[in-house]
Amino acid sequence: MGKIIYFPPTYPDEDFRSIVHRYYLRSTKTYALSKIELLGNSVPERIIYPQNLARMSLDLGVTEDFVDHIIENHSFFPIIRPFLTKEKQANTQEGMRVNSSRNQLNSRSLYSFISTEGRYCPDCMFEDYNQYRVVYLHRLHQFSFLSQCLIHGCDLISKCNTCGSSLIKKNGKEMLHDLYCPSCNQDVIENRVLNKRQADQALLNDINTLLNEKGLDIESLHLKLMISIGARGFIHFRGDFIYKKKLMLEFIEFYGERYLLELGILTEELLSEKNITRLFDKRYMGSFIIVYILMMRFLSGSVKSFLNSQESYSIKIPFGVGPWPCLNPICTHYNELVITNIRRKAHEWVTGRFTCSHCGLIYTRKTKPNEEENSGYSVETWGFLFIQKVIEYFEMGMTLEQIGEKLYSNRTTVRKYLRPYMGRRRKHKYPREIEEEKVLEIGFFEAAVAAEDKVTTCKETILEAIKILGNDATRPKIRKYNMHRYDWLMKREREWMEQHLPPRKPISTSINWETKDDEMYQELKQAITKVYSENPRERISGMVIFRELSKAKYKLYYAYRSILPRSRGLLESKIETEDAYALRTVSRVIEWFKQSRYKNPSLKLVQNRFPLYKKCSKEVQDWVIKEIER
Predict the structure, then answer these.
(1) pLDDT-based confidence at residue 506 (cuts at 50, 70, 90)
(2) Deepest in the core among 191, 355, 508, 589, taking most CB within 10 A?
(3) What whole-number distance in Å separates Cα of residue 267 and Cα of residue 250?
């Protein structure tokens, strides 16, 4: 047996760090020696996750269930588990059992969603002390994306209201065990103004569902996600493209910017090119845990419904699997399902090219993805049988009208197919010196692989965008649907575009824009003063400033900023540059260094911990390092 003869009772949702601290309180040794006694020799200064649990279990003489209980109920592994492969899950669990270097719960992955400060809910503290006569650290309160207790709606606290000291030291030596601050011995809750919001039971249920889901890994999670978004039309029918921006805009609209902001999700960052590219990449899913929890609810109503869903996703084969009818009236298999040769070409529409082997007829149809209804057909060539009959009847002395009547056609078509036979050429030759008789016999598509008519394709795209957008169709929205084709047509088919696009939004002459500019200027000035006084953590951009104003003001400004010169000049002058942001943030950097284990600051270290210093100028970077050293 080892040295451990006692292990404190664990409480619901207790953070493992809190268990270690309570072990130390009942020990006769120093905190450092207590940690070594409980966890072994190679113990980091700051405990984040359990380790050496197998040794602990052996010393205490308990079963393997003890180890599983600690991992499942008192570590952060369950919330990370769905975002790891099966192999990494096994390595992580083994690492916590025997302190292996293969442990995937490294500090960097945890810091991405675990608060750097220990946090408490005042109502939970009071309830815990009344029930258990002890205050302990709740695991759920440490998720950095939560600023309030999901059960009580209270703002989470990390500092004493009286003396301002942290309620938990980073190394875990000091931690709350009753309702009194360990530094000033004053009641932590007393005289505190408690901000209460509505309890978020839905999010609490979603997080608990994910914590208790043991059979999920990143492969199955990613597959379920792709099936779900595909079934809701967010994947291109070819299956090679996800409409990420469309999906995220609907996601933001579903929750609202205010709710997302309370969870630390900035819509501006969520829609940034970097994040929207990484969002559905398996390698980065662990960086967006809260986003995926909300995404599951957005797609299926709750995480539980999402995980239990047996939904399938498939794309219907355009035009079906055949066979298809021959549409040539002179073919012996007219209207019979004899065509087995089809070539599909996919763009915004799908084009099917059908070839009858009995008469040589080639015709095309168009359809929209996942729709049953097809367009009417277009004949590319009537084929060798038609040409043979035209020549035969012509040599018998029939007129063009008679031949056309005999072949269920018309004079124009008959003359077109007779022209090569009679030695007459078209006034305008086909490109690339293609022989006309070959075009008539096997179709121009086969005779020369010519490019599809781009004008027609682009026009179809614009008309499709107008139809989909409906009453909300505006020129900017239509352009976003396919910017390349919109711009291409505006250069070459301007008259057609003006006929079909909605009219430009006229600038109202009844509005006194000078007065409107003055009003906007004053409101922006107040918003800017407020934002700068609050010293926000993010860079002060136009979006951050407009959060203080109504959405209507935001839309008004960006729609008419060209005729609001004073407001525009003020806003653009107050948007924070990368250098100014870096200088304003330096106090946080210095504070972090004071509390960290690093003694020799370097630019690389600063940039790794605070990426904003990668974007600022060399002068600011040098000044920051000197300031930290000073």
Answers:
(1) low
(2) 355
(3) 12
Write the pLDDT tens digit of every residue in 119-130: 899 999 999 999
What are the tokens at 345? 């070409």
Closest to 281 measured CA to CA, from 292, 269, 265: 292
User: What does the pLDDT look like over 23-62, one tens digit per residue?
Assistant: 888 887 888 888 787 877 777 777 777 888 888 887 777 7
State the Cα–Cα distance between residues 249 and 77, nearest whole angstrom.
31
What is the distance between the alpha carbons of residues 208 and 71, in angstroms, rounded to a whole number?
Answer: 15
3-class secondary-structure state, position 154: strand
Six-digit token pair at 420?
A: 């090569």
Cα 59 to its chain centre, rounded Å, is: 47
Show the tokens assigned to 143: 């998720």
Rounded to whole angstroms, the Cα distance separating 465 from 388 reads: 45
Alpha carbon distance 416, 401 (integer Å): 13
Instruction: Locate 68 and state its tokens.
Output: 């599983």
Q: How far is CA 137 from CA 67, 209, 595, in A?
A: 20, 21, 21
**pLDDT for 452 beyond 60:** no
Largest CA distance in the chain: 120
3-class secondary structure, 150: coil
